[in-house]
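Extended Data, record PDZ domain-containing protein
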Amino acid sequence: MEAPRIDKTATSRLLIGLALCAALMSGAFFLHVRRDAEDHGSVSGASAQLLPGLTLENAEPAGTGLIVTSMESSGPAARAGIAVGDDLIRIDGTPIASLDQANAYLSQHGNAHLILGLRHQDAVRMVALDRSPD
């Protein structure tokens, strides 16, 4: 019995199609994340990666905390259960109202482990996060 022939042209086209689909899906995911951040009133232009695996922006109105605008899908923040759109309102029990305040707290306190107070869909929860990346 003869082995089936593989059409190299068809295989190449299939792989190109899959790569294109992956690129389109990642672009669509980015737009969804960005739109979700806009829905939470956070697209102010200033953002920072103060904690491993996630990016934060000032929430609107000003002084109401920070919002998670992006994160590494397999990073420490994702493993801790943090999601894009979550509002960061406390670090180690200290209320956080802005990026500047969060940066000042993190600069003054060298804690390796942090307890973050997050608001997600009107529920506040506490999440433990290691400060050092993987």
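Summary. The first strand starts at residue 47 and ends at 51.
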